[in-house]
Amino acid sequence: MMISTTLPDKKKQNPLSKLLAALILLGLWQLAAMAIGQEILFVSPATTLSRIWELGRTLTFWETVARSCLRILLGFCLAVGAGTVLAVLTSFVPLLHSLFSPLIGIVKATPVSSFILLALVWIKSWNLSIFISFLMVLPMVWANVSQGIEATDAKLLEVARLFRFSWWKTLWKVYLPSVRPYFVAACTTGMGFAWKSGIAAEVLGTPRGTIGRELYNAKIYLETPDLFAWTAVVVLMSVLIEKGMLALLNRSRRRKGGRP
Question: What is the pTM of this model?
Answer without folding.
Answer: 0.84
